[in-house]
């Protein structure tokens, strides 16, 4: 595979106005600077940069600021597929680039790579050492289950790339010759790239992987069709996923206006009425510094799409998939985040699995409620008019320019079964100009069933049905407002060379959550000597560490005696509290840690993860009405996923609100106190017998919607302990 010309695309692009004279332009450019050019497909809406699968020529490694070699880990290793790797996608009318490009020491993170993560073991070469087939890569040797960290001696299977184009006046695809790839080309219909890799082995295992990527003229989305065929003599299984490094184009990261959404099935006991699909857009949470990794399991997935966007600009991006996903894996670090859709593939000889995905962009939405083959839809109640009436605003954002759309809205009040329907005819819309209609009046706070359909003539572009409570404003993760009350967070912090305290993910999580609940929160090291003013203004103290200095513990005792609240999270070093009677527990009997129950050397870690962890249940009926638990779903409706906990003995004058219970596959079931409270002087003390991340996978760490009940729980603990309304 040779692409010789390195021609910039800027001069070749000719953007059409709203579809008039639409074309697809194909060019080549070395966008990642590795010496191998990428194929660049563009129309009036999208620019897509795609790696060809050709290996880069060997070069001397670049050096970082300290003179150390920068190691390129992922691109040409044993993990991500080379052929058809998207380097970046940009929405041209707004200039929004949707993917991060992070080049740190020992890391190259960019684009939307994909991987068949579960390797295929073929033979044992020697005790404990195996040879594996890696679909999308080739063959490699390794130990254990062949997780990527153990794979050595990688033999890469080559990729072939076929380029085809067609014009709008016909449906005939024409192939671009191998020796005719210099310079830009254009088509008035579509441009298609087909990447193929064939792996043959001496062990009876073989496969063919094809990836077909098509950009149509006048359409703001990229079509991808994949197929994996078993061409060998033996059956095999694997898992496939994509790993988008979402950065939303803001300094290779994301900002305070960024949002993200994966539609999930909310817990049944969450007090959400008839809500069946929760797709509410939620803030992306900056978790600098730190690494977070967690799951959305199959019983939580309601629809196979992921949307993200920016409220300030209205930019929006959609990733959608056909078929049923096995799970989502969510991941973030300091500079980017990823939402990884997984599929499980089992193939007998001669069988093939085909699946499709679409990636579309536009501008004009601040959230997405649903999607269809023709676009995305969002809705929200407008601000009340002078007469107090509210309208329901529907916004449909298409992937093409349309001049004569029809939108049908059916809305039913589930309380009184009042059912209304309205048609909106002859409406225009474009990828940057949503179709907006208003319907009303619609009283807020009621349960409704909604159905939105959009058609272009007889062609159905979108059909989305929802049952939900229409609210004046988005749900929040807390009840109450601390009204600026002071809060002190004690954690194990360190200072840099300049003497500045460096946050941890624990201190950051607490600070973010308490500030969102209305506290004026500040983080301190457990050994810090605080100014008197901080102690005097504090309404709440959080000890997010195993121990605290004796001097600070004395100050905390005085503060709580006078009426402040104290919240202590496990796991603690009980010896630090032996000379104090402030805790609502009298003894620590041990600790349980189940973190290892979610293996990282195989990729079915999320299929039964909730069965292998502990969860939270109300201690008794009285606890269910306690303010701390108001509106919170508990096991089995909601899987909290507790992986680490302390076994404690409550004081005789303490109240147990929550207990731990084991999932179906927990070896040692138990019923142990999880949340214990008691008064201390004029104040309140709360002890939660687990770390802030519950010692398990942390899907709450990416954005607040996924961790809504986690955050709500911790906020309500703090508000109640501080005796805030």
Task: Give the rounded overall mean pLDDT.
Answer: 85
Structural class: mainly beta
Low-confidence stretches: 1-20
Q: What is the approximate shape?
A: globular
Topology overview:
Layout: E1 24-29, E2 38-42, E3 46-50, E4 86-91, E5 96-97, E6 101-102, E7 109-110, E8 114-116, E9 120-126, E10 129-134, E11 138-143, E12 152-156, E13 159-166, E14 174-175, E15 185-187, E16 190-200, E17 206-216, E18 221-230, E19 236-242, E20 258-261, E21 282-283, E22 292-296, E23 305-310, E24 315-321, E25 327-332, E26 337-347, E27 352-363, E28 370-372, E29 375-381, E30 392-398, E31 402-413, E32 418-429, E33 435-439, E34 447-456, E35 459-469, E36 486-491, E37 494-495, E38 501-502, H1 505-516, E39 520-525, H2 532-537, E40 538-543, H3 550-561, E41 565-569, E42 585-593, E43 614-618, H4 621-624, E44 644-650, E45 655-662, E46 672-680, E47 683-688, H5 708-721
Parallel strand pairs: 36-39, 36-40, 40-41, 41-47
Antiparallel strand pairs: 1-2, 1-15, 2-3, 3-4, 4-5, 6-7, 8-19, 9-10, 10-11, 11-12, 13-14, 13-16, 16-17, 17-18, 18-27, 19-26, 20-21, 20-23, 22-25, 23-24, 24-27, 25-26, 28-29, 29-30, 30-33, 31-32, 31-34, 34-35, 37-38, 42-44, 43-45, 45-46, 46-47
General description of the model:
The protein has 5 helices and 47 strands. Among the domains are: 227 residues, no CATH class; 100 residues, Immunoglobulins (Immunoglobulin-like, Sandwich), CATH 2.60.40.10; 173 residues, Rossmann fold (3-Layer(aba) Sandwich). The strands form 10 sheets. It has a 10-stranded antiparallel β-sheet with strand order 14-13-16-17-18-27-24-23-20-21, with no helix packed on it. The N terminus is likely disordered. Strand 46 and strand 47 form a beta hairpin. With 725 residues, the protein is mostly beta strands.
